[in-house]
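Re: How this chain folds, sequence and tokenised backbone to follow
Notation: Tokens come from a learned vocabulary of local backbone shapes, not from coordinates.
Start of record: The labelled sequence and token lines come straight after this line.
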Amino acid sequence: MTESEPLSRISAALEQIATALNGMAGISTRPPELVSGTDAYAWSGERQLLMPVAKVNRVPLELLEGVAHLRDQLVENTLAFARGYGANNALLWGARGMGKSSMVKAVHAHINALDDPAVARLVLIEINREDIGSLPALLRFLVTRSERFIVYCDDLSFDHDETTYKALKTVLDGGLEGRPDNTLFYATSNRRHLMPREMIENERSTAINPSEAVEEKVSLSDRFGLWLGFHKCDQDTYLEMVHNYVRYYGIEIGADELRAKAIEWSATRGARSGRVAIQFVRHLAGEKGCAI
């Protein structure tokens, strides 16, 4: 027995122990895997796993009323990416309930439904805000694949004591590795600059060089080449959303009754948005005995 053999045995034993502990903690030591025929996954940063999503919660693209100009821009950007052309990371920001996350999922389905051999099938991967720190590990796996990916984070924002935004800045643009050519990053947020106003103001008041500190915070959103701003809708747009849903789901109701009920519903919610519209239509479908 050589002197190196005991060390090899110790190393092997330590590796087995580490593997066992990772297994008990639910952490995978194997590279992530893709399932044939599956085009949507949820990424677990803690477990380093891609979990297949059998049925994505989404609506058809044509149901997204009131945001057609934004929809067309995102379709154009995503289609260019699927064709292998230049495309930008996209930040969908603005009012709650106006269809930001619905649009990302609907555009993904729309592109994959195109009967065009020049358009690559896209894989959608959702990453939670809490897992942004593990994004570099995910991208190191994706860069080795032949597929084209959209990594999507819903409700992306950062609090004053978080530093993971720095990792995201590096990944999106400017780091040594950068973003892989086969990957786009789409994010939705209620905040245009992804940071709360008080966080930016605090940096301005406490930093030695206030302008540089603020610039570091707000420059994160600059990493997104495509900004799509979603704003609160007026009553006419809200009613058009309701009518569109009612037509699509085949709910029979008179125009005057529908208008009165829809306005009353929005008044009780204190808001008008796509989310309020679909919630009303679900309620209406229940009243009329319809499945949607």
